[in-house]
Amino acid sequence: MRRPRGRRRRRAWLLAMLLGWTGLAGALELTPEEAAGRRLYREGVGAGDTPVEARVGPAGTAMPASVLPCAGCHGRDGRGRPEGAVRPPEITWRRLTTGRPAYDAASLARALGEGLDPAGERLDPAMPRFVMGWRDLANLGAYLKRLEEDRDPGLHEAQLRLGTLLPSAGPLAAAGKTVGALLQAMLDELNQAGGIHGRRLELVIADPGPDRAAAEAALAGLLDGDVFALLAPLAPALEGRYGELLAPRGVPLVGPLPEADGEDGPLVFAPLPGLREQLFALAGFAAGESPPGESPALIAYPPEAARQAEALAARLRAHGWKRVRLFDYGAGQADGEAPLTADLEALFFLGAGEALLALGRALDEAGLAPRLYASARQAAGAALRLPPAFSGRLFLAYPLLPADVSPAGAQALETLRRRAGLDARQPALQIGAYSAALLLAEGLKRAGRDASRERLLRELENLHALHTGVTPPLGFGPGRRVGAAGAHIVGVDLAAGRFVPTGRYVRIEP
Question: In the prediction, which pLDDT does 263 show?
C-alpha cells in the first residue's frame, strides 16, 4: 500500500531537520509534472509540442504565452505585481481555495480558458485567456499547489543566507579581512535583535582567488549554493561584469563597486558612486566653471578604461563641449591628433596616480597648465606631487567627505568596529561595507516575512532618502542603481600641500 504523498513529504522534512539539512539551491523537490508546471508558470513554455497561447484584449489577439507568462504579472511568488492601474491578485493555491468565490481544479481551468471566476463573473480584462492542452493545465495546477513552498535559495524558515566574495590572500587580503569582520559584526548585531522577520542572518564567504577565472568560479560556487543575495563583495576582477553573471539566476547584489562603470544592470545596487559617476560629476562641475564652447577637452585613459572614457566623452558633449578628444596614453594616440595643444582647456584623467604625475610633468615641460579633473580614488595619492603650475587647477571627485558622517552615524560605526575588533584605518572601505549592509537590511525588512528576490529588488528600487548616518541619503528608482548618485568636488592647493573642498556636491541625473 502506498503511503500518501503528504505524509511522505512530512516524514522527509522531519528527517531533514533531524539531520541538520539546510537545503541547496532549488532544493524543493518537485515531481516531473510540478517542474513542468513551474516552467509554464515562469516562462510560458508548455510540456508538449504545441505552444501555449495567450489571447488578450476584446478581439482575443493571440500571442505566445512566453510573452505573457503568469509570473510576469503575478510574480514568481504568486502574490501579484501591480503595474500601473492593473492589480493582479494573489494566486497561491491557499488564497485561490479559501477566497470568495473559492477555486477548484475545474474552475481554475475555466478562469484560464474563458476568463470567468467560479461565480461566472468576468475577470479583469487585463487577464489573458490561455489556450493549452489538458496536460499543461494539470501541470500548472500541480505547481500552483506547491508555489508557496518554492522559495528562493538561501531563504529558509528560520535563517537567511547571504554570500560574499572576500580575498584571503594577496594584496587585498587585509581589506577582505576588514570587510568580513565588519559584515559579520553587523549581522551579529541584527541577529541579537531577533534577526529580520524572525530569520537569523548567515554570511557565506568565498575567496575570489588571484584572477578573473578564479573569481568567476568562486561566484558560480556561491550561486550554485544556498545564498539569497550577495553583500559587499570585494572582487575587482568581476566589477562591470556582475550584471551578466547574476542575471541568469536573478540574484541581487548590494555593495560598493568603486571601479564599476555604473552599468551593471537592474540586479546590482551600489550605495555610493563608482568611477563612472565620479567622472560624470567632474564633467558637470567643469562645465559650470567655464562655458565649454570651442575650447577642447582631452580625456586621457589607459587601454582598459576605454569604455569609461567613451561614456565620459558623451557626457562632456552633452554638457556643451564641441571638441572632445580621447588620448589612450597606453597607445600614445588621440584620434590621430597631438594630444597636447596650446588651447587645451580641460584634461580629464583616468588611471593610476603615477601616470597622472607623468602626464602633469609632460604638460608642465610643454608650458601647458589646463584644468585637471580626476577621481580621488585613482589620483589623490599623487596629487600633491604635481608641478606647482597646477595649484588651484586640479579637481578631484570624492564619493564621501567627513561632513557626510553624522555624530550618531559615527558612533554606530565605532560601536561596530569595536565589536569586529577593527580600528579606524580604511574608513572608506568600512563605510562602503557598512552602508551596503544597512541598505540590504532595510530592503529585507520592507520585503516582509514572505520575501523573495523579486520582492527585495522591488523594495530596494522604491527606497528614497534612506539615512545611513555615514553617507549622503540613499535613493533608487527605475534605471537608477546608485544610491548617492553624485560626488563632492575638492580642489588642491599645491603651495600649501592640502586639499580644499569647493563646497560643491554635483548630483548625477540618470
Answer: 66
Q: Is 454 within 8 Å of 77 (Cβ atoms)?
A: yes
Could you tell me the end-to-end alpha-carbon distance of the chain, in angstroms, rounded to an integer? Answer: 64
Residues 6+ apart with CB under 8 A from 510: 477, 479, 480, 485
Does 163 score more than 60 pLDDT? Answer: yes
Place of cell 551579529: 188
The pLDDT value recorded for residue 149 is 82
- Write the CA distances from 340 to 136, 296, 306, 337, integer angstroms: 68, 10, 19, 9
DSSP letter at 448 equals -
Cell matching residue 81:
505585481
Cis peptide upstream of residue 258 (ω within 30 degrees of 0): no
Residue 251 near residue 267, CB atoms below 8 Å: yes
**Residue 432 near residue 254 (C-beta atoms within 8 A):** no
> What is the distance between the alpha carbons of residues 471 and 484, in angstroms, rounded to a whole number?
8
State mean pLDDT over 174-189: 97
DSSP characters over 400-446? --GGGS-HHHHHHHHHHHHHHT--SSSHHHHHHHHHHHHHHHHHHHH
156 neighbors 22 (Cβ within 8 angstroms): yes
Grid cell, residue 260, equals 564599476
Its pTM surpasses 0.85: no
Averaged pLDDT, 426-443:
95
Residues 6+ apart with CB under 8 A from 235: 165, 167, 208, 215, 218, 219
Distance, CA of 255 to CA of 168 (rounded, Å): 19
Map residue 38 onto helix, strand or coil: helix
Average pLDDT, rounded, for the chain: 88
Q: How far is CA 275 from CA 10, 235, 351, 442, 486, in A?
A: 52, 16, 10, 25, 11
- 268-269/253-254 β-pairing: parallel
Distance CA 169, CA 403 (A): 34
3-state secondary structure (DSSP) of residue 248: coil
Nearest alpha carbon to residue 441 among 433, 369, 276: 433
| Spatial separation of the C-alpha atoms in residues 113 and 134, rounded to whole Å | 11
Neighbours of 414 (CB within 10 A): 12
pLDDT at 332: 55
